[in-house]
């Protein structure tokens, strides 16, 4: 690999160590190194590339927009691209699902959406503390890190800025599911320090936390508990939204309407930064200018986002194919679990994982896969899970090819 990365790039970088190639071109489910080697990408920008690299439909719209000198940076002005995005979001996503949200553009990335949500729930309720979950991940800024359940990710950031109390996530006790009794007692006990939280923040499936999937009934139970105690519910759908688990919103299966939803990653559709905070209308208590920023909204990303909604969310084809492809991944993972002691199949939709008791194994499998030209990230508190997240547009052939490499890679490490 080119030495410039060693000599000039900060030590904070990480992926170029894991995947020592210099990538140049990207198309569909593939990344191509500058020497032309093709790598199947089952990482997909950690959920930022649900429609694949340089998706041709989105690319056409983007090129047309740039060709006619469409606004690129409009700060916060009203633009045609923004209006079309908002109209399409309403028509394709919110109305058909009976969802009533106002849309905030909180800043360029997922963590900006989480920050705005944390600020807003404090403003709405006048309370400060937030309930978060074990193994949660919500981003790298101080508020988001305060509700992130992984001390390593906090780096040297020190004391959390937001008063956050972690509670056990569904499935925390090795398959024994925590009920809400503990939670409820803590809420009712004035000495617990947990009385009167402003909100809970939850992922329906923890991507960075190790592909831990919560059950819809757990999520619904949490929602009902929140309603009973007047606690707001924030669903962080930054990674699992935009169809990663099947439906556009990962909480749809639970039949709930969270007070606030954080979206980013694949909402722009083309791998360009765009973040949204969806706020139930009655909770939109922002005053003008209270939460601003130079890169709120992104006009070229509005163009691709609009097209992605039209192309993929006008019917349920993508949702169905994601569920079917996810089940196929699940079958192969079950096969591996039956063969190798201690392996654990995780996830739902096309957010799947294979966990190992020894974290070193996951790292070795990821490396073995890279050697076989498949990109697989690891996740979990000790990076003990290989994370399988191809673009949702992956073809059946590409999926089979990737699954075969996963089989071979696991075999090469464990056999
Ligand atoms: N929330 C979740 C659930 C995430 O997975 C991530 C990113 N991995 C974030 C928030 C932060 O998003 P970003 O990196 O775009 O700031």
UniProtKB/TrEMBL annotation:
The keyword Ion transport does not apply. Its cofactor is pyridoxal 5'-phosphate. InterPro entries: Aminotrans_3, Aminotrans_3_PPA_site, Dat, Ectoine_EctB, PyrdxlP-dep_Trfase, PyrdxlP-dep_Trfase_major, PyrdxlP-dep_Trfase_small. Pathway: Amine and polyamine biosynthesis; ectoine biosynthesis; L-ectoine from L-aspartate 4-semialdehyde: step 1/3. Pfam families: Aminotran_3 (PF00202). Gene3D superfamilies: Aspartate Aminotransferase, domain 1 (3.90.1150.10), Type I PLP-dependent aspartate aminotransferase-like (Major domain) (3.40.640.10). CDD domains: OAT_like (cd00610). The keyword Transferase applies. Its EC number is 2.6.1.76. One of its GO terms (molecular function) is diaminobutyrate-pyruvate transaminase activity. PANTHER family: DIAMINOBUTYRATE--2-OXOGLUTARATE AMINOTRANSFERASE, DIAMINOBUTYRATE--2-OXOGLUTARATE TRANSAMINASE. Belongs to the class-III pyridoxal-phosphate-dependent aminotransferase family. This is Diaminobutyrate--2-oxoglutarate transaminase.
